[in-house]
């Protein structure tokens, strides 16, 4: 049985109708000990069918270890959304519920290779020379969460130094505990700085700079 | 955990603009609807069917308040109940089916002093011959020490978002209305104990909610009490409450606090543009007209009393019908007065 119903399928087709370039959905799966791997794989395959520009590539997290390492994938289910280059856009856990919006948005933005971030943000990001890792913790029932995920992904697309993950907290409870996630969205930047809620662009940028400044000391 | 997967597509997130809006020659819409909850989207359905060129600026939380409601059981036509996110998605599909354009841009400024009206957002400037304000209401904060510090890490106003993090934990729900009780009941799926702190000695929630709450062994009640402080160092450890009758204070241990103490209308940007009442709600007549001709308001932004999806939707329909009439009146050929 398909995961996407007929109506949603039509809507997705419309959303992906004018992709600016080819996009690969590189998915890492495993048969055992992964709650939603099968569903995530099915979702990736169904979505890939809905645009000529999209291809699904499925890898096994264990037997394709090298590929996983190459893309920095350290947990499953994982989706890397890759366009003309690998911008570092990742989804860990199934992007269902409200997060499905984030997936579609990531596909469109990666296809275009350019974001809707402000001039100010782009200027600041251009000056970033140290690696930045943004992890946005979400739950599928959180309507505010895609805003935080989309913003982090856009920053990853805008800067070669930034990579950004959506992390579905319910599928990775050990990470939720490790990063003291008690509410979503919660964005963790470089392990050191965290931010609650769907914060506006300038505030996220400030936190990003704070994370970088903290490391220089 | 068994899970029914849903795939929700909300309008494009982040400063995207309606087609052509960034151009110099801004298209003038017949109707711009500010807000994408039940009132705004119902107005869009009616406006679309009336063939008005309609734009919905859905704002940062598409779907409005039901979008973070677990289940809506009192909207007619859904005898089994329907998830809040699915219901609002259906509203949106229906609006789009009739030609309304929905974008997620949030409004930052309006100018209703001259027509066409000007509506500025983060991404663009729009112009409209008529406007419906349906920006809704946002949860009121308690305004006590500890609340801001712990917001998002122990203090929440969204049980559907954050309930998961309270498996086998003890939580406090502040409030006694429908939201407090419904969300408190939702939290019993995760938490081992849900303590409802209410400032009165009885609930305001609907009797059905009350029956369920009193029958639920995980729900407990602290009456006549207000929260004075949210306590904790790294994480929330409890709340300090004061009994309003005796004045006594005590501490309730808890891992999380969910605040449902009513709503505040989202009207800051409309001050000076339309009449607001003392509580900040937009003043409307029974035709959903505001003090400014051509500007209508619907839903919770003008309704301090009922705050129901069905009522918001109903007032949205009224506003759209009235906006259409208003526009039709204007385009009707002017009749020359016969000489006296």
Overview features:
heterodimer; A: 217 residues; Glutaredoxin; 2 domains; eight-stranded mixed β-sheet; 21% strand; B: 340 residues; alpha/beta; FAD/NAD(P)-binding domain; seven-stranded mixed β-sheet; 7 helices; 22% helix
Provide the helix percentage of chain A.
25-40%
Oligomer: heterodimer
Count of separate structural domains of chain B: 2
**Chain pair sharing the greatest interface:** A-B, 45 and 39 residues
Q: Please state the overall shape of chain A, judged from the principal axes of the Cα atoms.
A: globular
How many helix segments of chain A?
A: 8
Characterise the protein shown here:
The complex is a heterodimer of chains A (217) and B (340). Chain A has helices spanning 6-15, 37-48, 65-70, 99-112, 119-126, 145-158, 173-178, 201-216, and strands at 23-29, 54-60, 78-82, 89-92, 132-138, 162-168, 186-189, 193-196. Chain A is of the alpha/beta class and 217 residues long. Chain A has an 8-stranded mixed β-sheet with strand order 2-1-3-4-6-5-7-8. In chain A, helix 6 (145-158) links the parallel strand 5 and strand 6. Chain A is globular and about 50 Å long. The mean pLDDT of chain A is 94. The longest helix of chain B has 23 residues, at 309-331. Chain B has 2 domains: 28-138 and 263-331, FAD/NAD(P)-binding domain (3-Layer(bba) Sandwich), CATH 3.50.50.60; 147-259, FAD/NAD(P)-binding domain. Chain B has helices at 38-49, 84-97, 147-150, 159-162, 178-187, 207-215, 309-331, and strands at 28-34, 54-57, 71-72, 82-83, 101-103, 107-111, 117-121, 125-133, 137-139, 155-156, 170-174, 193-197, 219-222, 225-232, 236-243, 249-253, 256-259, 263-265, 295-297. Chain B is 22% helix and 26% strand. In chain B, strands 1, 2, 5, 6, 7, 8 and 19 form a 7-stranded mixed β-sheet that branches. In chain B, helix 5 packs parallel to helix 6 (207-215). Chain B is elongated and about 75 Å long. Chain B is α/β, with parallel strands linked by helices. The interface between A and B is large, with 45 and 39 residues.
């Amino acid at each position: 049985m398909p995961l996407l119903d007929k109506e949603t399928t039509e809507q997705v087709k419309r959303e992906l109708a004018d992709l600016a370039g080819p996009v690969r959905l590189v998915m890492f799966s495993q048969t055992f000990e992964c709650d939603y791997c099968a569903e995530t794989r099915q979702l990736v395959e169904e979505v890939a069918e809905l645009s000529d520009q999209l291809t699904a590539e499925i890898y096994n997290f264990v037997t394709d270890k090298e590929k996983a390492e190459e893309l920095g994938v350290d947990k499953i289910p994982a989706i890397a959304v890759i366009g003309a280059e690998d911008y570092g856009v990742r989804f860990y856990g199934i992007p269902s519920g409200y997060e499905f919006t984030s997936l579609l948005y990531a596909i469109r933005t990666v296809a275009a290779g350019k974001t809707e971030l402000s001039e100010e943000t782009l200027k600041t990001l251009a000056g970033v020379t140290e690696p930045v890792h943004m992890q946005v913790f979400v739950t599928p029932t959180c309507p505010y969460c895609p805003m935080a995920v989309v913003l982090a992904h856009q920053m990853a697309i805008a800067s070669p130094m930034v990579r950004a993950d959506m992390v579905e907290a319910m599928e990775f409870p050990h990470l939720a505990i490790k990063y003291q996630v008690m509410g979503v969205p919660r964005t963790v930047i470089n392990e050191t700085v965290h931010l609650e809620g769907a914060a506006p662009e300038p505030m996220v940028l400030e936190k990003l700079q704070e994370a970088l400044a903290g490391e220089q000391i | 955990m068994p899970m029914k997967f849903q795939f929700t597509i909300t309008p494009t997130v982040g400063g995207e603009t309606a087609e052509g809006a960034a151009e110099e020659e801004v298209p003038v819409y017949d109707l711009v609807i500010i807000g994408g909850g039940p009132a705004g989207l119902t107005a869009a359905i009616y406006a679309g069917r009336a063939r008005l060129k309609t734009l919905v600026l859905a704002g940062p939380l598409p779907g409005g308040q039901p979008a973070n409601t677990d289940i809506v059981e009192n909207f007619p036509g859904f005898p089994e109940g329907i998830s809040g996110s699915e219901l609002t998605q259906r509203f949106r599909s229906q609006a789009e089916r009739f030609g309304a354009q929905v974008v997620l841009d949030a409004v930052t400024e309006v100018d209703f002093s001259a027509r066409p009206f000007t509506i500025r957002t983060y991404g663009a400037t729009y112009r409209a011959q008529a406007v419906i304000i349906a920006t809704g209401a946002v949860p009121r904060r308690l305004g006590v020490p500890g609340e801001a510090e712990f917001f998002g890490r122990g203090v929440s106003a969204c049980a559907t978002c954050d309930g998961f993090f309270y498996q086998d934990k003890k939580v406090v729900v502040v409030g006694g209305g429908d939201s407090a009780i419904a969300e408190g009941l939702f939290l019993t799926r995760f938490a081992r104990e849900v303590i409802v702190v209410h400032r009165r000695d009885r609930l305001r929630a609907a009797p059905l909610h009350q029956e369920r709450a009193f029958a639920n062994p995980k729900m407990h009640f602290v009456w006549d009490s207000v929260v004075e402080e949210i306590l904790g160092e790294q994480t929330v450890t409890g709340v300090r409450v004061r009994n309003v009758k005796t004045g006594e204070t005590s501490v309730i241990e808890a891992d999380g606090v969910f605040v449902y103490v009513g709503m505040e209308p989202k009207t800051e940007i409309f001050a000076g543009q339309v009449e607001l009442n003392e509580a900040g709600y937009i003043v409307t007549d029974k035709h959903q007209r505001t003090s400014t001709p051509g500007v209508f308001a619907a839903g919770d932004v003008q309704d301090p009393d009922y705050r129901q999806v069905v009522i918001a939707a109903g007032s949205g329909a009224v506003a759209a019908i009235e906006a259409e009439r208003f526009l039709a009146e204007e385009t009707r050929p002017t009749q020359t007065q016969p000489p006296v």
